[in-house]
């Protein structure tokens, strides 16, 4: 039975006023900064990961000589991730703080898995940037070949404004206050240059492996002699949920597709984050690209069956009346009456990062949009512009240099479901990559 959308909006508003408000949180940072260990320990201390599950992970990890990865195994669940000791795909879980309900997205740190990291960051409202405080660890992650800088730039480019910098492994430097200050002083100007508002960035010293300053700051703990700020959980609990485009047409980019295995979840399972509008059980949705439609048989959120979901929710929709090969990663679920349009030509305002090769007319690129990776070409460099005033500085530049803001025309080799940011900001953000490096990010101004 379909629940009326007016009733859904009414129920959602009541829930937001009276209960914990939901936030999607992505955890990023250089490989080996301790992201999965930090979040695995946090899940255990908050009760999301049971003692029984953690003990099982301790025994299994110790058996293959990786006992120090026990907390990370709460999120790194695949056999390959556990054998290699690195996060490969985006792991998802949930946890509660006194005032917030978090959907946790643990993104891979290795440069080989940046596309997966982009997919995770595109679903986030806020981010935790995990920095390794150990001697050499910070320098490696924050250096030219490290992923700390690229991850920070990418999450900001994908719309994340609230950032928590968790300076991890403080136990490895004997909780040295000067080391913490050194790291903050190095990271702070870079984040400002990357577009973060300093008032929306918080720095927290932690020792994930030993549980220091994660849930509570102990009065007589090793940080007590100089740190008087909040614990990581206390900072997370103060994050502000962004406004949601509830009244917009449904838009749900698909991040995973699978076959449902139970009576309730029979049919095609399509996971993703609702970035506009809402949907409820019984609704008919269209899958774009394509002309096919399906009926929502069931909805699942945070491991529980729910009757409806709204913008900002990470969900799985079980679809009936459609074949599995019709729904793909990168497809968008939308109303049959208001489908997202397919575009082949995009006018995009981009910020150029630090590309190794020049960006010129004719340059082949990869355009990342949510979980889609679309082959494209830079077909026109319209102008460079002043990022503060929007004033045109130069028309038809020959090349785009690093740090430049510009308007460009991009042609996709195959049509993609993309909308201008003025219509739906989450559907209008793109990342440009070339030869394994992120070269620019931008917002879509026009689609044709």
From TrEMBL:
Its main location: cytoplasm. The keyword GTP-binding applies. It is found in: Cytoplasm. The keyword Ubl conjugation does not apply. One of its GO terms (biological process) is cytoplasmic translational termination. It holds the Pfam family GTP-eEF1A_C. GO terms for molecular function: GTP binding; GTPase activity. GO terms for cellular component: cytosol; Dom34-Hbs1 complex. Residues 20-244 form the Tr-type G domain. It catalyses: GTP + H2O = GDP + phosphate + H(+). Keywords: Cytoplasm, GTP-binding, Hydrolase, Nucleotide-binding, Protein biosynthesis. SUPFAM superfamilies: EF-Tu/eEF-1alpha/eIF2-gamma C-terminal domain, P-loop containing nucleoside triphosphate hydrolases, Translation proteins. Component of the Dom34-Hbs1 complex, also named Pelota-HBS1L complex, composed of dom34 and hbs1. Belongs to the TRAFAC class translation factor GTPase superfamily. Classic translation factor GTPase family. EF-Tu/EF-1A subfamily. This is Elongation factor 1 alpha-like protein.
């Amino acid at each position: 039975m379909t629940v009326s959308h007016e009733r859904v909006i009414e129920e959602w508003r009541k829930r937001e006023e009276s209960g914990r408000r939901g936030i999607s949180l992505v955890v990023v940072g250089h490989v080996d900064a301790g992201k999965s260990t930090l979040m695995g320990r946090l899940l255990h201390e908050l009760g999301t990961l049971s003692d029984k599950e953690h003990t099982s992970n301790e025994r299994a990890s110790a058996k293959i000589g990786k006992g120090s990865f026990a907390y990370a195994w709460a999120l790194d669940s695949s056999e390959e991730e556990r054998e290699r000791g690195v996060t490969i795909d985006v792991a998802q879980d949930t946890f509660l703080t006194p005032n917030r309900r978090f959907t946790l997205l643990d993104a891979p740190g290795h440069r080989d898995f940046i596309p997966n990291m982009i997919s995770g960051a595109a679903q986030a409202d806020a981010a935790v940037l995990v920095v390794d405080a150990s001697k050499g660890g910070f320098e490696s992650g924050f250096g030219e070949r490290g992923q700390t800088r690229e991850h920070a730039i990418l999450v900001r480019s994908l719309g994340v404004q609230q950032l928590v910098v968790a300076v991890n492994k403080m136990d490895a430097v004997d909780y040295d206050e000067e080391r913490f200050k050194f790291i903050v002083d190095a990271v702070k100007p870079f984040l400002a240059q990357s577009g973060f508002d300093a008032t929306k960035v918080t720095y927290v010293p932690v020792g994930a492996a030993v549980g220091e300053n994660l849930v509570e700051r102990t009065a007589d703990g090793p940080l007590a002699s100089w740190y008087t700020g909040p614990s990581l959980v206390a900072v997370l609990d103060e994050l502000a949920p962004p406004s949601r485009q509830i009244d917009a047409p449904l838009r749900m980019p698909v991040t995973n597709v699978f076959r449902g295995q139970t009576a309730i979840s029979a049919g095609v399972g399509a996971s993703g984050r609702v970035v506009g509008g809402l949907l409820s059980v019984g609704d008919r949705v269209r899958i774009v690209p394509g002309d096919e439609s399906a009926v929502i048989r069931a909805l699942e959120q945070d491991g529980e069956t729910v009757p409806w979901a709204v913008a900002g929710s990470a969900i799985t929709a079980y679809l009936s009346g459609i074949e599995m090969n019709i729904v793909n990663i990168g497809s968008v679920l939308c109303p049959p009456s208001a489908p997202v349009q397919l575009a082949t030509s995009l006018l995009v305002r981009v910020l150029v990062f630090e590309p190794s090769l020049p960006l010129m007319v004719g340059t082949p690129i990869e355009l990342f949009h949510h979980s889609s990776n679309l082959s494209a070409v830079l077909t026109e460099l319209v102008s460079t512009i002043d990022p503060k005033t929007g004033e045109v500085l130069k028309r038809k530049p020959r090349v785009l240099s690093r740090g430049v803001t510009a308007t460009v025309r991009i042609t996709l080799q195959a049509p993609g479901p993309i909308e201008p940011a003025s219509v739906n900001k989450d559907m209008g953000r793109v990342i440009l990559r070339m030869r394994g490096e992120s070269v620019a990010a931008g917002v879509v101004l026009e689609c044709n």
